Amino acid sequence: MEKVQFEYVINCSPKVLYNRLSTASGLAEWFADDVRVQGKRYTFIWEGSEQTAEMTLRKENRLVRFTWVENESLYFEFKISQDELTGDVSLIIVDFSEEDEVEETRELWNTQIADLKHILGS
Known about the structure:
This protein is of the alpha+beta class and 122 residues long. Helix content is 29%, strand content 43%. A hairpin with a 2-residue loop joins strand 2 and strand 3 (41-46).
């Protein structure tokens, strides 16, 4: 597995974006069909299949990391960065992919982020 990183410019405040990245209701709007939370455990549901991750890192309006319960060496992370000069807000996604599946992983995130931008009116 290799670590991959993708960056997207999102036209909204870090606070609004953080809410969509860190809450079950926010994530269910664009990331998964449904999201259930018990404590720090988030169960993501896609077309009937479930995967569980634990929120292992969070910094208000800046960062959220989910570590997969099935394989604790793998995680995905949302970093929010704001350019001090322009005020532009970027979402940086860190994920893991098989070497020969990096493009598929990128396409999957592109689709997810397009949904997120649509919800945010961005």
